[in-house]
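Observation: inputs received (chain + zinc ion).
Thought: call the complex predictor directly.
Action: predict_structure
Action Input:
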Amino acid sequence: MNIRTITETAIHALDHAASKAGNTVFKAKPSLMIFVFHGLFINSAEIEKNLVDPQQNVTVDGFRKFVEYFYYRKYSFVSPEDILNGLDNGISHIMITFDDGYYNNIRALPILREFKIPAVFFITTNNVKHNTSFWWDIIYRENRKRGVGLDKIAAEEQLLKKKTVKQIKEYIHDKYGRGAFNPVGDTDRPFTPEELKKFSEQDFVSLGNHTSDHAILTGYPPGQICARITEAQSYLHGLTGKWPAIISYPNGSHSPKVTDVSRELGLHLGVTLEEKKNLLPLVKIKNKIALGRFFLLGGRDINRQCDILCSDIMLYIRLKNILKTFIPFLFSPHICFDKDKK
Ligand SMILES: [Zn+2]
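Observation:
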């Protein structure tokens, strides 16, 4: 165990004790808590195949534990439509979101049906259209095949995030060959267009915009931001007949320029990767177009993480948010959220 792990473990323990005590004494303020998920794994054996960057390492069982935690505590599960229609400001709500458009997200459907709760699935449309693997999964998979360590992989992903989508594609093509873009199976592949259309027709499912190519929008001029969001809107509308009302900014990266363009294109809601509760009422537009989201880690006790997030103390997240301001690269998404597990 290194110093960072020891410190984190100590803060988590303190956080959990404080939240347990706090939850019995203080009632948390009513809020909308949004959770982000990515791929949903059958079990840990699937994760250990190293076919994709496991990110949060969440299995179907872990997802069920998360749902049960809030369901049995009588939280209200809401969809983007519910938010737009106005939430009951006296109680707390949960919105479930999945980013990217992994086919394996269909594994959530039986649980959504069982508990009758909605979820939003944010789709990167070019991956669906062209049936290509997500670039971070290719980097992870190819490097693991070659025995490269996790820190090096994370560093390579960070470096690539500074490039344009076109440059990333060229990099992968030159280093790993054209075949690297081909998905290897249900673990890593995106939905096919037909599957996505059918999926979008299911009860409890709604789709959201995750841009056409997962470009980190803050690095592009307004015209190109607009093109990427519009292309995804049109594609999803063409496929499903519905216009998404919500966007998930790739990498969580947003700026006033990005949120302005999104709103001008008819997206009324936007989600980020800022770990925060969205306190009710959501009165200001800026609160709706840059909503905070939490992520859970499959390698750790799900109930314990939920206990911490239920309270308003959230010591670890508060500390992390302060540190993020100074060393943002340590907390960037799509680079192995859950290092403990691997
Ligand atoms: Zn994403």
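Thought: report the result.
Final Answer: The mean pLDDT is 90. Residues 3-24+31-331 form a domain with the TIM Barrel fold (CATH 3.20.20.370).
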